[in-house]
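Changelog-adjacent note: as of this version, every example in the card shows the full chain rather than a window. The one below runs 122 residues end to end.
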Amino acid sequence: MIEAVAAIALVGIGVVSSMSGLAAMAKSDRALQEREVMQRLAVQKYDEIVATNGINTAELNGDFSDRSDSTYEWRAEVQPSGEEDLEILTVTVKRLNTEEGPQAEIDGLVFQPPLSTGGTTP
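Full-length structure tokens:
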């Protein structure tokens, strides 16, 4: 009888350990999936800003309501690179109205052609 109780207790401990391990894996999987979604949105927004030459003309923050997604918001930041006609564009995506938590960030160099004076060159 004591052996049966000990066996049941060991099986119970094993099942509880397995279930808590599965719960931790599921939570980790959800966090990774969310981070992947945010990374894809950051890349899409970066590409959109670069393709439309929106560094100087577009809003540098917003949400993804144009994609029917009200879960995330984005912010773009432009910094000088130290090289002539090159800017560093950084796009950050995070959950809407949260200061902490996972976020995705992508950055890269963007060529900004010099302004033309409209004159002719010899």
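Structural remarks: The CA atoms of residues 79 and 88 lie 5 Å apart.
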